[in-house]
Design brief:
CATH topology of chain A: ABC transporter involved in vitamin B12 uptake, BtuC
CATH class of chain A: Mainly Alpha
Distance between the termini of chain A: 41 Å
Number of strands of chain A: 2
Radius of gyration of chain A: 19 Å
CATH class of the largest domain in chain B: Alpha Beta
Largest interface: A-B, 49 and 48 residues
Shape of chain A: globular
Radius of gyration of chain B: 21 Å
Oligomer: heterodimer
Largest sheet of chain A: 2 strands, antiparallel
Helix content of chain A: 55-70%
Number of helices of chain A: 11
Number of domains of chain A: 1
Number of strands of chain B: 14
Strand content of chain B: 15-25%
Strand order of the largest sheet of chain B: 7-6-8-9-10-13-14
Structural class of chain A: mainly alpha
Largest sheet of chain B: 7 strands, mixed
Helix content of chain B: 40-55%
């Protein structure tokens, strides 16, 4: 039981938080702008390097420097949208999808040119885990990630249900034509989509980097599970994406727990496969996702 | 991925500051510039550039200049194939030096380099799968096969008095190759592997793997993976979780990044095996002096010797063949690397072209060894045992 919490449950929740935060952006962009944003992983990478650059100057806990990463991703996302995605918006969405692939490579190359291609770490040494009630050993970072993600989920929910902008966003995601004829400011909705998506991407990237190390492929490697999470939760449903992220994270980590007998239920080598089998199964039986998202 | 390669190649070209002229000869340099072993690469690029620079200062290649054209494998099989295809088809290079990882070397060789009939020489690809590769005599390496490193590692572990270990290895050509030979050698010599787990690259958490590895009463954890990817994360998460304190790694883990990541204190009792250069080798000293004179430091970094030697051999092979004919170069590579012949060492390009002009056979004695290929393009060599010393590694033992 203790082993389960220490080595399976908490890491799973931490990974789930990273997927969840990344998937919100993907899901919202998919829902509102109607295209799969393949540069989202690299947007995460960019934000992480923004934090890393500040961490080299200001020696405080990197989590406090996340706002700099967020600023960098928001500016980049808005510029990219203005100069690359907006001119293509009237064309079939496949043009935007492919151009987002290009943007992904541009982001990654910029990161390599500015910061180099090596692996880097925020700090040297291993932080001892926090011991709770003398039994549970939980990494401080994991606890921070889970708590911060929970706070973000609450704020996001509040924003989407109570504020005018948030409600317009949901309206556009549900039915863009109707939203447009009702006189909603689509440009503003799009702007806020990018701001939220980019902010959460920077936070997710920093968590992922603190958990492991910083390298140019950081976000790209996370893209597949994040897409899985977004689809699982239902396209255009930010809360669904959050839930999807946690489900994918939990499925990956918990499937290798020795539920029956002494051996891992499924060999840890197949972790990734477990998450995708889950996603495929759901797509077959419930194609709109858990939270009744848009059908593609 | 193409765009990335182009940028890297362009940056590399700008770095050498040479303008492409008609009589210049290109040599392909395939490296894992991004990806799990990215931290190894900067000194290795310097090593390859140094070889090219010495050639150009001492009479040039085939009467013109030599130019290194870089390709980045991104540390993945697909990236390796893309980069290699660009080198052989677009840049039309007659020989390729690289790449470093076993997986990328084999992928590039099978999908792009062998079909194009281009000879390839890898400085560090250690997988046993390279030995049996159907390469038509085109693929060489100047580092001993992991059949060898796995056995030596098993012996080192037993010599430390460790009879029970847990083992985890990365599921690619490198990890599986060395992992399987380690298991065979270790159990045959009386050791017991109490837990074993193959793991996938690029995951964020290896805690579930570690939890099952820690089940037995293993005295240490043997990690066969790259420090820039799964290896570093496994060591860190094992320490965080209080599961293991003693680690045994191979050349992939012996990366300064690992020390930056977990700190030297945590690695005090750990040790690492890695292909190395023979002790007391005058050729190595000559190379290290030239390298440090050019770049200030870094000659003692992992695989500098092998990378320099492989690049220098590739250049010698072109000169010996007298043209950029790919088949001739493959033959010439064996001639310049192997005895008999007049000995040539690192940096002795002027001497080498003089001898070639006179029609004499030459035998390159490199910093990493004498590079005598067998029929599979493999070499014997040296394995060193390394421990952490400050923020670097120190060699404490050497085995031929």
């Amino acid at each position: 039981m203790i082993e389960f919490v220490n080595f399976y449950l908490f890491p799973a929740l931490a990974i789930g938080s990273i997927y969840a935060l990344g998937a919100v952006g993907i899901s919202m962009i998919f829902g509102i702008l109607r295209f799969a944003h393949f540069a989202h992983g690299d947007l995460m990478t960019l934000g992480t390097y923004g934090v890393l650059a500040m961490a080299a100057i200001v020696p405080v806990n990197p989590l406090l420097l996340i706002p700099f990463g967020i600023a960098l991703t928001i500016v980049s996302a808005l510029l990219v949208d203005r100069y690359f995605y907006k001119p293509l918006r009237e064309l079939p969405t496949i043009y935007t999808v492919i151009s987002s692939f290009g943007i992904a490579l541009v982001f990654r190359s910029i990161v390599q040119l500015v910061w180099g291609s090596q692996n880097q770490v925020f700090f040297t040494g291993v932080k001892p885990p926090m011991v709770l009630f003398d039994t549970f050993r939980v990494s401080v970072l994991h606890l921070q990630a889970v708590i911060l993600t929970a706070i973000i989920a609450v704020l996001l929910h509040y924003f989407l249900t109570v504020t005018r902008t948030g409600r317009s966003m949901r309206a556009v995601a549900d039915d863009p034509e109707l939203a447009e004829v009702s006189g909603l400011d689509t440009a503003k909705v799009i702007r806020w989509t990018w701001i939220i998506g980019a902010s959460l991407a920077a936070i997710a990237g920093t968590f992922a980097a603190l958990n492991t190390s910083v390298h140019p492929n950081l976000g790209w490697n996370l893209l597949m599970p994040m897409f899985a999470a977004a689809i699982l939760g239902g396209i255009g449903k930010p809360m669904g994406a959050m839930a999807g992220g946690f489900i994918i994270g939990l499925a990956e980590e918990l499937s290798s727990y020795h539920w029956i007998g002494d051996d891992a239920l499924i060999s840890p080598s197949y972790k990734t496969a477990v998450a995708f089998v889950l996603m495929i199964g759901l797509l077959i039986f419930r194609p709109q996702g858990l939270f009744k998202g848009r059908l593609l | 991925m193409k765009k990335l390669t182009t940028i890297v190649a362009a940056a590399a070209l700008l770095g050498t500051g040479t303008a492409a002229l008609a009589d210049d000869t290109k040599i392909g340099v395939l490296m894992d510039i991004t990806g799990p072993i990215a931290n190894f690469i900067p000194p290795l690029q310097n090593a390859a550039d140094l070889a090219v620079k010495q050639v150009n200062e001492q009479g040039g290649l085939l009467g013109g200049s030599a130019i290194a054209v870089y390709g980045d494998t991104t540390g993945t099989a697909q990236g390796a194939v893309d980069a290699a295809q660009k080198l052989v088809n677009v840049e039309n290079v007659p020989i390729i030096m690289g790449s470093l990882m076993s997986g990328t070397t084999i992928a590039a060789a099978e999908a792009a380099i062998i079909p194009a009939g281009v000879p390839q020489i890898s400085p560090t690809a250690t997988s046993p799968a390279m030995t049996t590769l159907e390469d038509g005599g085109l693929v060489f390496r100047i580092v001993p096969s992991d059949n060898y490193q796995g056995e030596i590692l098993a012996k080192m572990v037993l010599d430390e008095g460790l009879k029970k270990v847990a083992l985890t290895y990365v599921n690619n050509d490198y990890g599986v190759g060395i992992g399987e030979t380690f298991i065979d050698a270790y159990t045959a010599a009386g050791g017991e592997i109490v837990a074993e787990a193959k793991h996938e690259e690029k995951k964020d958490s290896y805690r579930s793997e570690l939890a099952s590895l820690a089940k037995g009463d293993a005295e240490a954890l043997v990690v066969i993976a790259y420090a820039g990817d799964s290896g570093g994360k496994i060591v860190r998460q094992a320490i965080e979780g209080g599961l293991f304190t003693k680690f045994i790694g191979t050349d992939g883990l012996r990366d300064e990044l690992l020390i930056q990541n977990v700190g030297a204190d945590a690695l005090k009792t750990s040790f690492f095996s890695s292909p190395t250069s023979p002790a007391e080798n005058p050729a190595q000293k000559a190379l290290h002096d030239a390298f440090n004179a050019e770049y200030g430091e870094g000659a003692d970094k992992a695989f500098v010797d092998q990378t320099y030697d492989a690049t220098f051999l590739a250049l010698l092979a072109i000169e010996k063949a007298g043209s950029t004919d790919r088949a001739k170069i493959a033959e010439a590579l064996k001639e310049v690397a192997m005895a008999p012949g007049e000995k040539v060492g690192p940096g002795e390009w002027a001497k080498a072209i003089e001898l070639i002009k006179e029609g004499k056979d030459i035998d390159y004695e490199g910093a990493s060894g004498s590079a005598e290929f067998d029929e599979n393009g493999d070499v014997g060599g040296y394995i060193g045992k390394f421990v952490v010393d400050g923020d670097g590694y120190k060699q404490v033992e050497i085995v031929e």
